[in-house]
Write a sequence for this structure.
């Protein structure tokens, strides 16, 4: 179902993305070892990744780094190794022979014990050793193993040099392909540092697949098909209004379709409910930022209200939160661009997601939500 809210897993539930899937499989077939899947939030990176991995027919492991980070507060090697192995075994469901082969290989890695779907460690697992074994197995059997880190930029918060490990693998283990996705595109670029001579992956080649929002035409087609699938009739004018409000961001279009088509709300109710949910999401996401500085909030608020130049943002922020020096403001703005909350262009700063912009415009902060104003 097109309007299912979970990240899609099956090709038939994924609207379009033909080009991106083709590019992904081409990179795999060419034996490329590093693929980046980029795009702001809710454009369908996880969905595309799920479908691309399952269509690849290769053994793969997909690790949701963002949720690991938020559940555990850090990402120790044991956890990553466990998730990696469990994912691989899961991807071989129904392929018992290959699965047994892999269990044998993994059991020979120092410190690792695999029985059934259970993974145990006698000692701290050696991740590099594990990857080497996987590569050797892939080489011997003519396979390619895909390791995907969804929202990989969170690996950088783990305190462990995973960028070095990935660089080592990309350079030395040609039968493994790493896929990194990121909605905080600037943060992901910082983490892997392809252009940064000080970083281990400097100068490496990566296949970059950047997800775009749907065009007006695609958005309309997506909505019409989704409603048709549910047997719900919707006027053309409504479709046009929805596209005006949600602007080709598939996550919002899907949520609207779900509220209207599955929950059977009226157009007005569906839009209201969508903004309510968006508000909860935005406050949640933004509060992670504002723990560092409440000024992030005022900057976003300033831009949502139409202040797009550096000086008008500064004026607003100072009016709300007192003096801020130029270097500090520039640093905060730069971070917001890296996180994908703001876009910087010739016309100044803007908020790339119209729903988030509207939410920020409407919402006033609950008092006491933020503690610091550094
Ligand atoms: N091509 C598509 N066809 C149909 N539905 C899609 C498509 N891409 C994404 N969706 C839907 O849009 C929503 C967001 O998708 P997904 O979680 O894959 O995006 P994301 O970019 O990974 O988002 P996030 O930044 O929150 O991780 C989900 O409800 C998903 O089912
Ligand atoms: Mg995702």
């Amino acid at each position: 179902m097109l309007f299912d809210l979970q990240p899609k897993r099956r090709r038939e539930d994924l609207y379009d993305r033909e080009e991106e899937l083709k590019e992904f499989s081409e990179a795999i077939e060419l034996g490329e070892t590093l693929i980046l899947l980029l795009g702001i939030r809710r454009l369908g990176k996880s969905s595309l990744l799920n479908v691309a991995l399952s269509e690849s027919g290769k053994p793969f492991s997909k690790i949701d780094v963002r949720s690991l980070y938020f559940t555990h507060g850090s990402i120790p090697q044991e956890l990553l190794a466990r998730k990696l192995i469990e994912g691989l075994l899961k991807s071989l469901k129904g392929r018992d022979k290959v699965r047994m082969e892999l269990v044998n290989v993994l059991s020979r890695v120092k410190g690792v014990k695999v029985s059934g779907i259970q993974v145990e460690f006698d000692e701290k697992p050696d991740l590099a050793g594990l990857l080497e074994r996987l590569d050797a197995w892939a080489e011997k059997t003519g396979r390619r193993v895909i390791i995907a880190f969804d929202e990989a930029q969170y690996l950088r918060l783990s305190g462990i040099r995973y960028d070095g490990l990935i660089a080592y693998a990309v350079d030395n283990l040609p039968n493994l392909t790493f896929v990194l996705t990121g909605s905080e595109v600037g943060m992901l670029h910082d983490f892997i540092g392809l252009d940064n001579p000080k970083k281990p992956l400097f100068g490496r080649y990566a296949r970059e697949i950047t997800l775009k929002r749907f065009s007006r035409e695609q958005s309309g087609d997506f909505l019409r098909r989704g409603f048709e699938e549910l047997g719900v009739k919707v006027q053309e004018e409504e479709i046009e209004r929805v596209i005006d409000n949600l602007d080709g961001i598939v996550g919002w279009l899907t949520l609207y379709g779900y509220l209207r088509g599955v929950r059977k709300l009226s157009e007005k109710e569906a839009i209201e409910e969508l903004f309510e949910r968006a508000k909860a999401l935005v406050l949640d996401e933004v509060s992670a930022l504002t723990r560092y500085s409440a000024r992030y909030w005022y900057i976003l608020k300033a831009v949502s209200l139409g202040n797009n130049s550096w000086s008008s943002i500064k004026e607003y922020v100072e009016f709300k939160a007192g003096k801020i020096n130029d270097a500090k403001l520039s640093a905060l703005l730069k971070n917001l661009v890296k996180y994908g909350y703001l876009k910087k262009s010739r016309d100044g700063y803007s908020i790339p997601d119209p729903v988030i912009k509207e939410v920020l415009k409407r919402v006033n902060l609950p008092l006491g939500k933020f503690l610091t104003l550094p």
